[in-house]
Amino acid sequence: MGNRYAIVLAAGQGTRMKSKLYKVLHPVCGKPMVEHVIDQVSSLGLHKIVTIIGFGADLVKSQIGTRSEYALQEEQLGTAHAVIQAKDLLQNEKGTTLIVCGDTPLITSETFEKLLKHHEETKAKATILTAYAEDPTGYGRIIRKNTGEVEKIVEHKDASDEERTIQEINTGTYCFDNESLFKALSLVSNDNVQGEYYLPDVIEILKNQGEIVAAYQTEHFEETLGVNDRVALSQAEETMRKRINKRHMINGVTIIDPNSTYISAESVIGSDTIIQPGTVISGKTTIGSDCEIGPHSEIKNCQIGDHTTIRQSVAHNSEIGSLVAIGPFAHIRPESQILDEVKIGNFVEIKKAVFGKGSKASHLSYIGDAKVGSDVNLGCGSITVNYDGQNKFLTTIEDGAFVGCNSNLIAPVTIGKNAYVAAGSTITDDVPSESLSIARARQVNKENYANRLKNKE
């Protein structure tokens, strides 16, 4: 096996997407299309990857980073014109070059490897990745000789009635002998209606030179989908979602209803975890073993330990420990750290707070910009009043403290270790350890007052 290279075509704007976002940056299961392609290509152990960028060049580069080198296509004049932009980086290399479009997020490294292997075994100068299409309308058809060698590619609009019955189609992914590729590119003409330089013309040039052109037909037509509009984007999303869910189920995760469960490509989930219907797990989320998530929960960029339950709740950009119970209807906002054995109950909102081991906020509370120790109990309606209209302040609640229902803790303030705050208190000063703080008006009962009001009326 000789040296291998890849060129990823990612310069197009994608006008049919009707979007401000450049086409290859549209996400599929939470990851931009072009990044899916780069991930699969990178796993092949290639000597060099070159991504052709154009529209949104800086955004594409920031997404892919150092995993690729880049060549700029300033004008979009066709696929052959795009490939020739990699000339300075690749033209003197010997080996095989894989060319793939950045809007084909479903192609796997296994398919790429089979294509490369077939190309090298047949000693072809070019190999086309083909697929069998139930409905080949709109695709270029692969015309083969009796020997199986490719004779030509015929575009749908140019095909005869007989040729249109052929169901083997060109997917737009190719392997080339690298030196032959760049020599042939110099011969490609733009003498066509669009005035563009087309990569399939290289196939015809090589054929006319007497070179071998092969084709490898993948068994998985759905992998070859090119995303050019929002309809195809939804199809890619559905296929990728099924693939991701299947992978997790094979690895020991129970997904009750895969059709209503959305898991990002980067998420990691431990065995014996149960994902209930209507759950969305996105970003770089890690969930431990023996958890139960959902139903109807939204988890994004979180790290979650083992044996944790999250029901009908939202958690973003936070760390959640083991043996934690969250929900229903809780909201864990970014930069929160929920330690082990914590209970966060219904209609509790946590924001940028540390919640110590074994602590509880069971109902109807807001705990923001706070440091809560271990074994703390926050009664129903406990509020950390963290904002004065200009600045946020920290509330500290030390180990073992008990905060009664409907209490307001006006930050900055500290509730000491094992201290008690009486229900209904508004705390403006620190509460010493082992103390009871009562900060509410004394109750006054005015007997017969109701009768006096009635008589007055």
UniProtKB/TrEMBL annotation:
Subcellular location: Cytoplasm
Cofactor note: Binds 1 Mg(2+) ion per subunit.
Binding site for UDP-N-acetyl-alpha-D-glucosamine: 9-12, 23, 73, 78-79, 140, 155, 170, 228, 333, 351, 366, 377
Segments of this protein annotated with the region N-acetyltransferase: 252-457
Involved pathway(s): Nucleotide-sugar biosynthesis; UDP-N-acetyl-alpha-D-glucosamine biosynthesis; UDP-N-acetyl-alpha-D-glucosamine from N-acetyl-alpha-D-glucosamine 1-phosphate: step 1/1; Nucleotide-sugar biosynthesis; UDP-N-acetyl-alpha-D-glucosamine biosynthesis; N-acetyl-alpha-D-glucosamine 1-phosphate from alpha-D-glucosamine 6-phosphate (route II): step 2/2; Bacterial outer membrane biogenesis; LPS lipid A biosynthesis
CDD domains xref list: GT2_GlmU_N_bac (cd02540), LbH_GlmU_C (cd03353)
EC number: 2.7.7.23, 2.3.1.157
Protein name per the record: Bifunctional protein GlmU
